[in-house]
């Protein structure tokens, strides 16, 4: 329960559908003594379990594997787009030498992540004694309140896909490009279909070394048909 309170739950609607489906199948199966309904309850339960694993454990594992590959130093000025409860932001802050800093932004929507709020994330930063390395502000990723080329690392975890419609997601990528320094790294972990969309948009923006990789079962939202992918890219230097 502590992990749920601290990190929130993504995909609440999906988990709810799986839970209700499992209960209905179980009730009908027990009442009718038909094995097919009981199998249905089990399948819904497994799908819901995948959701919970990814949101509570898997996404953290994904970033624990990613961050050692990044060049975090005293010169790092990072931006976490859609930071939510600060899972990724705090992981970065813990690895930053003195002088480095990471800023998180979010609009704190409850439907994106449960118990999502500016104060909750500020409290987590203070509790971790990372106020010198991390800070948060309320901002829309389509209109970032930062100067051009302010950051040399921009990351985002399971956030950009929440922007609707597609034109809004493209605006978000354009803003990330604007605030990122030439030669800076962009790392986005998000749903599979949107990562392919980002790949094409970043290619048009001139990014190089664009790579999209899978994360296995740690990124499954109900199953392998809805994976979490990782996109990495570098902004070219003039």
UniProtKB/TrEMBL annotation:
One of its GO terms (molecular function) is S-adenosylmethionine-dependent methyltransferase activity. InterPro entries: Methyltransf_11, SAM-dependent_MTases_sf, UbiE/COQ5_MeTrFase_CS. It holds the Pfam family Methyltransf_11. The keyword Magnesium does not apply. GO terms for biological process: methylation. The keyword Cell division does not apply. Residues 79-188 form the Methyltransferase type domain. Keywords: Membrane, Methyltransferase, S-adenosyl-L-methionine, Transferase, Transmembrane, Transmembrane helix. The chain crosses the membrane at residues 12-31, 37-57. Gene3D superfamilies: Vaccinia Virus protein VP39. This is SAM-dependent methyltransferase. The lineage of its organism: Bacteria, Bacillati, Bacillota, Bacilli, Lactobacillales.
């Amino acid at each position: 329960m502590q992990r749920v309170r601290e990190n929130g739950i993504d995909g609440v609607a999906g988990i709810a559908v799986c839970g209700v489906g499992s209960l209905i199948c179980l009730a009908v199966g027990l009442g009718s003594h038909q094995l097919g309904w009981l199998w249905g309850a089990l399948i819904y339960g497994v799908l819901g379990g995948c959701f919970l694993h990814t949101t509570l454990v898997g996404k953290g594992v994904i970033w624990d594997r990613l961050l050692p590959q990044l060049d975090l130093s005293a010169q790092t000025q990072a931006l976490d787009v859609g930071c939510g409860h600060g899972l990724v932001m705090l992981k970065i802050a813990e690895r930053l030498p003195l002088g480095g800093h990471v800023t998180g932004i979010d609009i704190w929507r409850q439907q994106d992540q449960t118990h999502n709020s500016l104060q909750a994330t500020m409290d987590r930063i203070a509790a971790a004694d990372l106020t010198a390395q991390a800070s948060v502000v309320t901002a829309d990723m389509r209109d970032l309140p930062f100067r051009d080329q302010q950051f040399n690392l921009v990351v985002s975890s399971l956030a950009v896909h929440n922007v609707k419609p597609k034109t809004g997601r493209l605006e978000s990528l354009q803003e990330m490009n604007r605030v990122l320094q030439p030669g800076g790294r962009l790392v986005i972990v998000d749903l599979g279909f949107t990562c392919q969309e980002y790949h094409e948009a970043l290619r048009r923006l001139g990014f190089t070394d664009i790579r999209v990789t899978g994360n296995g079962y740690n990124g499954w939202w109900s199953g392998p048909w809805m994976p979490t992918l990782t996109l990495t890219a570098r902004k070219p230097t003039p």
